[in-house]
Input
Amino acid sequence: MSYKLTTPKRRLTYYSGKLETLITRYKAEGLETVMLPDEEKEISHNAARGKLQRLGERVGTIETTTTKIEEKLKDYAEAIDSLAEPSPKDVEDFERYSSRGEDAMSMAFDYTLQLQARIRAFDRRTQASQNILTRAEQNAPQMSP
Output
């Protein structure tokens, strides 16, 4: 193996593993299955904002790590291309390591879609609940001093 390939391969492996770990940990938290509030029940603004914030943070870390994998895949491909004649093992390694990175990114893409859908649904439901409360407050009898 060429020394030129060691660093890009190691970095790609690191970020691919990091993304796989993040997805596994986030799935264990179950944020993609957070129950939406019923329209009849009041949900505090702070509770809703907290859940939305956690969902948004998860999407952000996944997207950041995915971007790093894309960068490292590019670096690794450029390192392979810069070799006058890559060995069969170098080519085989590239296929294996790039496949792992691509698999991690695919898994991340699917999970990010779930989180983003949950964010939109939660946000819409929270807005609907707040609209109901606002209408109820407007229709409430006014008390005179």
Summary: The chain has a mean pLDDT of 85. Residues 3-139 form a domain with the Methane Monooxygenase Hydroxylase; Chain G, domain 1 fold (CATH 1.20.58). The chain has three helices and no strands.
